[in-house]
Each structure stands twice: as C-alpha cells, then as structure tokens.
Amino acid sequence: MRFSVGCEIQYDVSEETTLILNVEAQHGEGQEVLDEQFSISSGVPAESHIVPETGNRYRRLKLNAGQHLISYSATVETRPYFGDPALIPQVPIAELPFEVITHLSPSRYCQSDKLGRFAWRQFGNANGYETVTAICNWIYENVDYLEGSSDGSTSAYDTFTLRAGVCRDFAHLGITFARALGIPARFVSAYAYDLTPQDFHAVFEAYLDGRWYLFDATRRCPIDGLVRIAIGRDAADSAFATYFGQLGGPAALVRVERLDSQPGTDWTVAAVSLSSP
Amino acid sequence: MRFSVGCEIQYDVSEETTLILNVEAQHGEGQEVLDEQFSISSGVPAESHIVPETGNRYRRLKLNAGQHLISYSATVETRPYFGDPALIPQVPIAELPFEVITHLSPSRYCQSDKLGRFAWRQFGNANGYETVTAICNWIYENVDYLEGSSDGSTSAYDTFTLRAGVCRDFAHLGITFARALGIPARFVSAYAYDLTPQDFHAVFEAYLDGRWYLFDATRRCPIDGLVRIAIGRDAADSAFATYFGQLGGPAALVRVERLDSQPGTDWTVAAVSLSSP
Amino acid sequence: MRFSVGCEIQYDVSEETTLILNVEAQHGEGQEVLDEQFSISSGVPAESHIVPETGNRYRRLKLNAGQHLISYSATVETRPYFGDPALIPQVPIAELPFEVITHLSPSRYCQSDKLGRFAWRQFGNANGYETVTAICNWIYENVDYLEGSSDGSTSAYDTFTLRAGVCRDFAHLGITFARALGIPARFVSAYAYDLTPQDFHAVFEAYLDGRWYLFDATRRCPIDGLVRIAIGRDAADSAFATYFGQLGGPAALVRVERLDSQPGTDWTVAAVSLSSP
Amino acid sequence: MRFSVGCEIQYDVSEETTLILNVEAQHGEGQEVLDEQFSISSGVPAESHIVPETGNRYRRLKLNAGQHLISYSATVETRPYFGDPALIPQVPIAELPFEVITHLSPSRYCQSDKLGRFAWRQFGNANGYETVTAICNWIYENVDYLEGSSDGSTSAYDTFTLRAGVCRDFAHLGITFARALGIPARFVSAYAYDLTPQDFHAVFEAYLDGRWYLFDATRRCPIDGLVRIAIGRDAADSAFATYFGQLGGPAALVRVERLDSQPGTDWTVAAVSLSSP
C-alpha cells in the first residue's frame, strides 16, 4: 500500500532550546520510504541519526528564540505481512531471541509486574494471537476513549483503575497485559490512515511466532493502514518530540493519504506485521 | 586491579522453569576477564548471549524440577580511568551522542518526569561531576539504608517519600535526579570489593564529559573496587536472575577478593570510569 | 444469638508506650453486652472512653518496658434485624440523613473518587441491596484471598489492581465501590463466629433503606454471626490497636463461641443489620 | 474583628442534581455570626443542617435543570485567642482528649503513615508550636504555589514529590507532617481577609496545649483574618460544594471585607485560635 504522510509542527521558542524530533517514517523491509522532505522555516541545521537496533530516526535541532515551522512529508510504500490469526502461537520464553526478551520487562508506563494476577486470570486460557486479541477486546470494552482524561504521567496502572484514556494509554495497557503473560510487547508510534481526527497515533506490537504483530485496542483505524515512525518500550522513549528548554506547546498538523487504490486498509481481519521475521 | 569474583546460587525448582541469569562479568576495555568458569550441578545446557550494545552477558537455562546449584567464578582485571572531579563538565543535550540520549528517559523505577522540580531546586546550581556528587551526598544524608524496607515494586518515587531503601533504591533515586537534570544515567549491577555483608551490589553511572562515571550513594564500598556485571535503564532490565515458572527463593552466595596488592580500592576521591570514552 | 467472645494480646514493650485498644464489643440496640471482663497482667490503669457518635470503645494504656498480657472476654447477645434483600432500596442522596452523608466521602484506604467509572459500568444497573450484593460477588470472584499479599499501606486502589488481599482489603474495596455509586458505606471490625483460623475480622456496612446492612465479600463466615467492635471510615480509624512508642509485634489470640442453640448463624440469605434504624 | 463575607455561585444544571453546600460561616465561641442571608435565585428549598461535633453547616438543594444563582452574605465577629508561640507545648498522646485522637489517623489526602521517616528526621527536634511553624516554613520554602499544578485527586504524597500545589495541597501536607509526628491536625476551609485573588481558602489547625491553633503554610494572608467555614479530616469532607448529578463547573465569586478598624489582621506573630479550649 502506498501512502502520502506528513506533518507540520510550529514552535514558539522563548529561549534557546534543543529539540529532538522523531516524526520520520522508518525504512525497512516491510516499509519503504520512496521519497521524503524535511524542512525547517528558520533554516537551522537538523542533525539526523538512525538507531541501528530499532530503525528509529531522530532529528536534533538547536532552536533559537522565535517561531519555527517544521515540515515533513513522505511517500511510503508498506508491504505488510498478513498472517492467519488462528495459526500464530506464542513463543516459549526458552525459545525467544535474546534481543526480544528485554520487551518482557516492565517500563515507565507499563508496570507489568503489578498486573500479572489480573492478566493471568482474565487472559490465561487463551494462546498466542488469540491472547492479544482478547487483551484488545477487553481494553476496548472496559476503557473509555476520552480525550483529556489522561496526561503525560498517566501509566497503565492508572488507566487500569480509572478506565479512561487515549491511544497511548490503550497501547500501554495492552503492552502491560502482554508482558505480564510472557509475551514480549513494545510501543509503536505511527501515521495512521483513516484516523479521525487526524493526529499522530500510538499502537503496540506483540512478538508472536517469530514476528512483531501490530495491535490497536482503540479500533479507531485499520491496522494495515499504519506507517511506523518509532518503536520503543513505551511512550517514554518513543515521543515524537522531546525538548530541553522553553517553548510554546506545539501546534501539530498531521496528514495521511492513501495513494493507491488496491484493496486493503479496510479493517482486515488478518494479523498484520511490518517487521521482518 | 585484579579481583577474584564469583557466586553460588541454589534453586529449588518445583516445575519446569526457564531461568535467565546475568551474573557474569562484562568484557571490555576497562575490564578484562582473564579466566572464568560457569557450571551447573545438574549439567543442563546453558545457552549464552552477549548483548552488543551493552556488553551484558546472559545465560538461559531450562531447569527441570529438583535442585540446581549454579556456580560462577572469574578472575577479572579492571583498568579504571581516573578523572579529576573538578574537571568533568556536563555535556549539553545538543552535543550528547544519540545512543546516550535514551538514558534521559524515565523508566519503570526512575520516574524522572515527576521529580524534576525538586531536582532543579536542590541541585540546579551545581555543574557536571559536582552535581552528581551533590545528588549522592543528598541521598546518603536523607535516605536510610535499611534492609527489608523496600521490595521489587519500590520505585524512586516511593523511596523519595519513604526515605528508606537498599542499594538498588539508592541507585534508582540517583539515576532519577540525574536524568531530571538532563544528565544521562544508567543502572549498574556489580561485584563489589569490600562490601559487608557480601552480596550483589547496585550502583549507577552518569554520562559526563564523554564518559560514563560510576557513583554509589550508599558509601558502602570503594567505587574503584567494582567489577561490572550489567548496565541497564534500571533494575527492570539488569536483574541478576529472571525466571518464568515456579522456584524457591534462591540462596545466593557472593564472593569478591582482591588479588593484587597495588594501591587503590581504598576510597579514592578521583572520578572513576570503567567505560571507554 | 448469644456469643462468648474474647481475645488475649501480649506485648513486649521496650520503652514507655501509649497504647490505644479498641477490642471491646459495642453496646447498642442490636447488640447487648451481658457481662465482660478486661484485665491487664501488669495492672496499669486502663482509661476507657466511648465515642458518642459511633459507640466505639477505646482503652488507653501507658505501658512501661516489659511484658504485658491483655485479656478481654464478654458474653454478647446480638439481635440482628433480618430484612428481605429484594425489598431494600437505595436512599436518594436528597433523602439521606446528614450524618450518613459523610460516609460517601473517599478516605485513606477507600479512594472512591478514582474508581467511579468502573463502578458505574460494572454495577450501575443494579439497585439497592442487589447492588452491594453484586459488589461482593465481584470482589469474591476477582480478588484472591491471600495472607501476606497486602500490608498496612495497601488501599482499595492497590487491591483493585493487584487482585489479592485479606479481609480488610476486601472490605475497603467494597466500601469504595459503594461510595462511588452514591451508597454510604463504612468499615466494621468484628468478632466473627465460625471464622477459620480465628482472628479479628473486617467487613463493611452499607446504608440502605434507612439501616446499615452488613456485607462480607470474603464469604469466610456467616454474616449473622458477627459481634461488632468498631465502625469507622476505614481501617485508619478502626484499628484494634494503635500505639505510639516501641513494642514487639503483638501475638493476638481471638476466640468466638456460640452459646445458644437457636437456629441462625448458618449462612442466612437474609439481609442482616445490627444497627437501629 | 468584624468581617463582611459572602459568595455568589452560579450553577448551570443539565439534569436534576442534589447539591450539598458548605459555605456558611461557623457559629461558636471564637466566631459569632451577627447576621446572614442565604438565597437561591430559583427559590428551591434549601434544607439546612449543623453537625454537632464540628459545627459545620450544610445546605442540601435539589436543583432542577436550568440556571441557579446562590448568594450568601454574613457579618461575622471573630474573637481570636492569641497565644505566645514560645509557650505552647505539644500534648502527649497519653493526655490527648479522646475525640482529638482521631485527627492522628491518616486520611484520603493526608497519608501520614507514609511520611513519618521524613517528618521525624526533619522536624523531630522541635517541640509544640515550634514544630508546626517549622513544618509551615519548610512547605513554604520547598513547595511552589502554582495554580493548575494539582487537581482533585492530588494528595500530600504527590505534593511532597511534585513540590507544587495550591492552598489545599499546602494544608494537606502540613496536616500530614503534623500527624506523622503525633500532633493532631485537621483541615479548615475559610473566608480569608486580604487574600489576592479573592477565593475560598484552605488552611489547617494543629492541636497544641489544649487548643486548635491555625496555620497557613502559603503565607498568602494574615492568619487572624480568617472566618472558618468548615473543619474536617481533609478536603474530602470539607468541600464547599458536593453534587450528585450533572452541572456546569460553577463560577464562584468570593468576598471578604474588614468592617472595623481596630488593629490586628496584619500578619500577627502570635499563635491564633478560633476554637474554645
């Protein structure tokens, strides 16, 4: 599938600020960036870096006082792998690749060490893909999607109790349950096709049968319409922007369009992965 | 400095359990393993893995029901870099290596996003090495070292309020303050010379002037008598053992001896690093 | 019903300590103390006080260093009011007695302000006695009764997430849900007939149809076999002992026997109240 | 001192709502209401109740859909007791009146059970009035007064860590430290003279030398310019308004004027109490 994605972010900087951006689409086997443009109105240099282990792409900018408009646009071809949900088993801990095992550890927003008893009781009888589907169904049915109900310090522990949140909270809770059950899981920030209102989106991936499969407990957009930006343990290391200084809350405009007319991106029931095995 | 280190850990396994151990000394420029032995009484195979980015060394064992005695011993030569504390400035965010920046993010046990106001007020006037020294002094003076006062779910947020903890809590609090101030910091598990009673130890490293310097807010052993086992974001990914199954609380016996008689390891006032720049 | 109840508590005091005990059975319309004895081996005076609003009975003792054995025994006649669960509606806020309204407020261990969304979603369709029964059923089915799984700082917020606790945690969670739904609820400490192993017990009361009805989500003993000791907002003001000083963890021996042979105390399905309307 | 106090609160009610107001000045020995008026634009009846133990005055109103303007105004004569801070000792637990002891218990927003270690270390060497002054000084110096930094779920535990809050958070933290040190303390909502901007205010009282003395860690208005509305364990049972239904966030206008011209109300250094001994 081919998408045109992009964003415009405006910053009002009051004193020199270092900004680290993570808005560019990942390159990889399941997702190819055909062309892209990154620009900043003030013309300051934007140092770029790709993390080898994750493929996350960072830009570091030193913004001086004043207004800065950052624009990014890209044409991205995704080649999702479609699996049969019924045929995707869980990988025993003893057989997990070592580099995947770290995604079983609790993290800032995903205290999987605290929700194990509930997770085993609620989801313990399912297996593999079915388990994570059950997790997503439970979240969708028990947590209200409610703008403004959470903030940057809200973790899965809070969301489980308060029962309200936004996409990042839904992803954190899904990750937490999966890890508690011995399924490696990680956070994914993405451009999402057919999301209303358009914005950066957050979903999660679970490691099953040798692949990272995408899951979205919000049911707000098709799972095969995602263009991945970053992967991480949770939102703490996958923010689209981090800054060190003083700046006015950014106004971000996000855009995702479908460029081809091939079938797909309409709520597939297949399991979807953008990672290589 | 040359050390003989080792541990013996006994497990009573009641049903098949996958155990992931992380007790072997790191190889690297600042620390060389001259010889070592790893054995398990039951003779089950122990798959081994070294994480390229961290140098952490894992063993994965599938233990069947019964008793298992694991023994590790090594002769390790450390070649600490000694710096002058007065000449170790902080690295501006704009100049930090990208791979180091991730150690500014909050993590499971180090909610640096919540303690920023206190950290800036308390330590905001210091700079570089002096800042982290001030952090360690504050922790030593304000937190009681008290066995049994914390458990596996205790985070820096709790320790800051409860004012009691053990070595891992002291390390978590130090990491949290450093990150809140824009200084990358990470968790270090180690064999520690001259620690009484002998046990695995936890300290932390802060990234200053292009190196990771070691800090120990507990003041329980000399900072240049450490042999590093693992580095990580916090205890969540640096545990000496993680298991998935049923087993009896391990009895661990840890041993650290000095083999050479050269000066050092007696409470140096120098800044100490075991990492390459 | 007639019960013989009592307790023996031994304290090893290392320095002068003020102890406030709350172990004596309440006097009142639904529960009459026929005879009772309170003694302390060291013979120190035990100042006594009854709180007018609650009927709670306190003893204050100034214990000097040494061993102290406290004994209490009483013969108590309870005259429970039995109501028909199907005929016990909720009282609208607009009609609640003012002195009852305070039991809608969140308290130390019952953060009803945080669990409202869940409570309404889960129990919002029931009414009156049926609502609180649904609450108790849910707790029984979803929380594991597990000695040692909680401590003095565990609140309903934690229990809801961790899904394990003891009688006081079960009571706190029940109170929290009830308050969140606009049903006044309070904590009750009690002697409980047929509880194994014998110990002080904790249940809760909800205010319905003009009375305080007893509820016990643990299902560990018959609800009409209770002798009330104290009522309060939660365990923070209903502890059986509070001390200010240094003393060795008390060893308590609790005893409850049935003295009459009339029917009852065998798991009634009626609604039970020991309060006057 | 004589004050004219009052408030106007406007509610936009979308469905029938029961409102419980607590905005009327307390009657008592230290504070006399000379005249007062309570009215509601829609003319609905306002049932009134005075709690015997506290003197708190409640109004219960059943508001139907529509707009309601509530007005209260009163002329109040306060007769503060002025004590000499140097001569106000702490009351030993063994001598506290029983009805005061309950104010040593932790409550929803004042987890005194968790901050004891810090409190003893920081304030443990002071005694009596001096202790509570030290508490207030510490709060003033270490916590930023910052509108919008806290919300209805913020407790003393959070404020201690986050180091920012508003008047109710300052009061909660003061109460928490006092209780942790064995000094009974309670929450006070009040009309406050010379507060800018004018609003309902929250302070706390500590029980010392047989009286409840007023303390305000915010230093935002004179302590002898207060007219007490309610006392309680913490904000959970001292809110100026509680409602059960749907209504638009109230717009409240508070007014406090000095009517006499006698000296006082200008930052006395005396200890001030409005309670009878």
From TrEMBL, chains A, B, C, D:
Pfam families reported in the protein's UniProt record: Bact_transglu_N_2, Transglut_core
InterPro entries linked: Bact_transglu_N_2 (IPR048930), Papain-like_cys_pep_sf (IPR038765), Transglutaminase-like (IPR002931)
Occurrences of domain Transglutaminase-like (ranges): 159-219
SUPFAM superfamilies given in the database record: Cysteine proteinases (SSF54001)
Top-level taxon of the source organism: Bacteria
PANTHER family: BLL5557 PROTEIN, BLR5614 PROTEIN-RELATED
Protein name per its UniProtKB record: Transglutaminase-like domain-containing protein
Lineage of the species this protein comes from: Bacteria, Pseudomonadati, Pseudomonadota, Alphaproteobacteria, Hyphomicrobiales
